[in-house]
Structures are given as C-alpha cells and as structure tokens.
Amino acid sequence: MIPTLPGADPRQPPAEDPPASPAARAHRQQLARVARLRAQLAELDALDRAHRAEHMALIAPLRARHVQARKGLVRLLHEALESAARTRWLSGTQAATARARLCALAQDLAEDGHADMAALHDRHSLQSLAHKRQARADELRERFETALGAPLDGLDGASPEAVLHAGWQRLREASKDQREGRQKKRAARRARQAPAGEAPPAPAAEVEADTLLRRLYRQLASALHPDREPEALARQLKTALMSEANAAYDRRDLLALMEIQQRAALADTGPGASMGEERLAALSLLLKRQVAALERERAAAQEALARRFELPEGVSANANTLRQARIAEAQRLERELVGLEHTLERGADEAGLKRWLNSLRQAAGPGQLV
After folding, report:
1. pTM over the 0.70 mark
2. Which residue intervals of 224-318 are DSSP H helices?
3. Which of 106, 235, 240, 350 is deepest in the core (most CB within 10 A)?
4. How far apart are CA 239 and CA 231, in angstroms?
5. Cβ pair 20, 28 in contact under 8 A
6. 69 and 340 in contact (C-beta within 8 Å)?
7. Residue 201, pLDDT score
8. Which residues 6+ apart lie within 8 Å of 355 measured at CB?
9. How far is Cα 104 from Cα 96, in angstroms, rounded to an integer?
10. What's the rounded Cα separation, in Å, for the pair 302 and 294?
11. How far is Cα of residue 325 from the mean position of the Cα atoms in its chain?
C-alpha cells in the first residue's frame, strides 16, 4: 500500500505546479542552450588536448623520419648533380629530372622551416625561393584586387602570408559594409512606412535587456571596487572578480555576470527566480545573443581543429573523424617512408640512380618536369 500523509485523501491526485508561462519556458530553454554549448566547447577543448597528445605520440616520430628521408634524397641528388657536372655521367634529361626533383623537395622543406634546404634549392633552381615567394605574393594580390575592385595598398614587397591575411581582412570588411548597408536601407524603409512624426519604437525587450545588463554590471562594480577593501587578501579577491566582470560585460555574458554576483554573495536567488514576464523576456533576449556568440565560438573551435589536424574539406571535427585522419596520416607517412628509403637504397650507386630518374621521367610523360 502506498503511504499517504495524514489528512490527505488518497483518491485525489497530488496537486501539480501551475504550468510555466511562455516567457519562463523560453528563459529555461535559452539557459539550457547556453549550458549545452558551454559543455560542447569544453568537450572540443578536451578533444583538442587529447588528440594533440595522441598525434605527438604517433605522427611526430613518423614526420621526423619523413623529413630526414627527404633531406637525404635532396643531398643525394645534389651530390649526383655536382659530380655529373664534372664527369657528365648523367645525361641531359636525367640531370634535368634530378634538378626538378631536388628543387621540389628542397622548396617544400624550406617552406616548412628547414633553412639548410633553401641554399640547395637556390643552388640548382633557375629562380630563387625569394623570387618564387614574391611571384606568389604578386599573384595573390592581383586576385584579391580583382575580387575587391580596389587596390591593396601598403603591401609592396609583402610575403604571401601577409597578402593573404590583408586580402581576407579586406574581403570581410567589404562583406560587413554590404550587410550594414542593407540593414540601413531596411531601417530607412521601415522609418518611411511609419506614421508621420512618429519614430519607430525600440523593442521593449531589447531596452530592458540592455538596462538589466548595465544594472547588474554597475552593482558588481560598486560592490567589488578593490579600493574600498582594507584587507589585502579580500582586495586581491575583489580585483580578480572585477577583472572577470569587466571581461563578461565586454562580451555581454549575462550568465557569467550572474555567477560572479553569486560568488560575491550579492544575490540570494538564482537566475529566473521570481521574475516578472517583462524581465524574463529581457533576460531571454540577452541569453539568445549569448547563444549566438557561443555558436560562433563553437564553429570557430571546430574549424580550428579541422585546420590544425588537416581534416578534408567539409569534414567536421569530432573524436571519430580526428582518429580516422590520424590513422590515415600515419599510413600515408609509412607508405611514403617505404618509397623514400627504397629510393635512397637504389640511388646509392650510379646505375640505380639512373634507373630511378628514368622511371620518374617516364611516369611524368614526355616534355614534363617531375
């Protein structure tokens, strides 16, 4: 038998809480979305750290061996070309193939930061790395100027990386200007459609939201001002909390300000407790803006992960895709290492090197450099 409280009628169902209002439901929904997005950001950060450790354990040793093998092949080709210049034991076609292969390998290594390879590249290339970089920067600049319809000033002699950064920055600014222009046109159209002499009213929730955010920040600033605290330890704590409050206010982070308020013992109730409909609507608007900011932060974190670990275009970063990419990269490096080490063995004698160079030329086709 189910026990009942004294005086309670067991035939009557227990009283239920009144249903939440639409404003309260919307507020709870936005709180849940903020909590979920923060958890996802924390998961992405943990995934990044875990994958870095696994990547270092598996990929870093393979890449180090890969670099050394490519450097060994560059030096082997360099010595062969230097020797052939004296004794002409390589044909003209074989020497051209060796030179093209050496320059391609040395350029890749030099661009990855191996300065000793730059000198070997320039020793055998008709065009130095510096000239190649400048040509690439000029080509990028021309493409951005064509897309923008305006010159990119102040980039004479800039590196390709600097031109790329400046070009994308200008494109983002141009896109932002276009969006703002469209927004101004829509606002002007709404103003023209409003009754004469009547300014279009600002949404009440937006006004209340900004007011609440400013009010909460001012309360914190007044209560946490470190100069008003005589004790050194308490002053240090208030200074840290005030720094957090400043950062939270700058990014319009309502929940962070509320958490700081509770840590500072300035509030006895949690967010959403005993609030009127208008205030709930205002807080929901602030939280909705925070959700949008967190979604952008999540997208940026996923994009950074995908770029850092070289995921294929359009593949989202998660534990499975990062693991698959790590395994695929390890397999690729191992396959290439086998080929490089076999080539170094073949190139140890003149006949083997000639056969390898001939095979490269045949694979590339007539009239093509390798």
Report:
1. no
2. 232-250, 254-263, 277-308
3. 106
4. 12
5. yes
6. yes
7. 47
8. 346
9. 12
10. 12
11. 17
* pLDDT at position 363: 85
Going 203 to 209 to 214 to 215, the CA torsion angle's sign is positive
pLDDT at 101: 96
Res 74: pLDDT: 97
Say if residues 357 and 98 touch (Cβ distance below 8 Å).
Answer: yes
Longest CA–CA span in the chain (Å) reads 113
Low-confidence ranges of the chain (pLDDT < 50): 1-8, 198-202, 267-274
Between CA 238 and CA 230 the distance in angstroms is 11
What single letter denotes the amino acid at residue 17? D
Q: Supply the pLDDT for residue 269.
A: 44
In tens, the pLDDT along 39-83 reads: 999 999 999 999 999 999 999 999 999 999 999 999 999 999 999
174 CB-near residues (< 8 Å, 6+ apart): 148
Cα gap 166→180, rounded to integer Å: 21
Task: For residue 203, give both structure tokens.
Answer: 């949404």
Q: At what angle do helices 254-263 and 204-223 cross, to 10 degrees?
A: 30
Token representation of residue 222: 């007044």
Looking up tokens 């450099």 gives 369
Q: Which two tokens mark 165?
A: 């950064």
For residue 293, the model assigns a pLDDT of 86
Amino acid at 235: R
Q: How far apart are CA 269 and CA 276, in angstroms?
A: 14
The candidate with the shortest Cα–Cα distance to 284, out of 209, 347, 229, is 209
Return the exposure string of 313-334: e unless at least 16 CB atoms fall within 10 Å of the residue's CB, then b: eeeebbeebbeebbeebbeebe
Of 129, 133, 136, whose CA–CA distance to 105 is shortest? 129
DSSP 230-245: -SHHHHHHHHHHHHHH
DSSP code of residue 268: S
The whole-angstrom separation of Cα 140 and Cα 160 is 7
CA angle 221, 222, 226 (to 5 degrees): 75
